[in-house]
Design a protein that fits this description.
Elements (H helix, E strand, L loop, with lengths): L9 H15 L4 H17 L7 H24 L1 H13 L3 H14 L3 H17 L4 E7 L3 E8 L1 H8 L6 H6 L2 H4 L4 H4 L1 E4 L11 E7 L2
Helix pairs in contact: 1-3, 1-4, 2-3, 3-4, 3-7, 5-6
């Protein structure tokens, strides 16, 4: 992510996320090797879920979290294993994502429009056919970007680990929490997600006057 014009690079971003995730896990070198080996096996076994080129990247990211969770759960228990993988996914790149998002919004002539344009571009440039987006409202004052299909969730459901989807949702807090309505002139609302039992994930941006 750049501070002015964000140009998605899904392959590089996924590689950075996977590496940061593995580095952040508090595990021995041998256990990390086990996770990496399990990850590669899961990726190979789930190729039927690759619906387009971008899905290769979301599959790879989702399954490294799944592999770590699967191998940590017997020793840590479900709750601690879930917390460990969520922290490893969310925390390593948090400072970078927050700083880049803040810089983009602070320097944009119209922060609301800049965020909406980024959200729209990411639909096709970062997510692709594994996700279904619907725009219930887009009138210059409100942009309702509703996700009705989530490839992360589909992959986890197919592998019997749907309970992990909220860990993927949590990564968005890194940019969501940067939005300051008083400073940037808009607010963001996401009351639920597919991973927490919702029918869809509402990404709602609203100008604040």
């Amino acid at each position: 992510m750049t501070t002015d014009h964000y140009v998605p690079d899904p392959e590089a971003e996924t590689a950075a996320l996977v590496e940061a995730f593995l580095e952040h896990l508090d595990v021995s070198a041998s256990r990390r090797a086990d996770i990496q080996a399990r990850h590669e096996k899961l990726v190979a076994a789930n190729q039927h879920l690759v619906v387009d080129d971008l899905a290769r990247h979301s599959l790879r990211l989702t399954l490294v979290v799944a592999a770590a969770y699967e191998l940590l759960r017997p020793s840590l228990g479900q709750a601690r294993a879930m917390a460990a993988v969520e922290a490893a996914l969310v925390e390593p790149l948090a400072p970078f994502v927050r700083a880049a998002t803040r810089a983009m919004l602070d320097h944009a002539p119209d922060p609301y429009q800049a965020m909406v344009e980024m959200a729209k571009s990411r639909e096709t440039e970062s997510f692709g056919a594994g996700f279904e987006f619907r725009h219930a409202v887009d009138d210059g004052e409100r942009f309702h970007q509703d996700v009705h299909r989530c490839h992360y969730h589909d992959v986890l459901v197919a592998n019997g680990m749907a309970e992990l989807t909220p860990a993927l949702c949590a990564f968005d807090r890194n940019w969501i929490d940067v939005i300051d309505p008083a400073r940037h002139g808009f607010r963001f609302d996401r009351e639920t997600t597919i991973g927490t039992g919702g029918t869809h994930c509402p990404f709602h941006f609203t100008r604040v006057r």
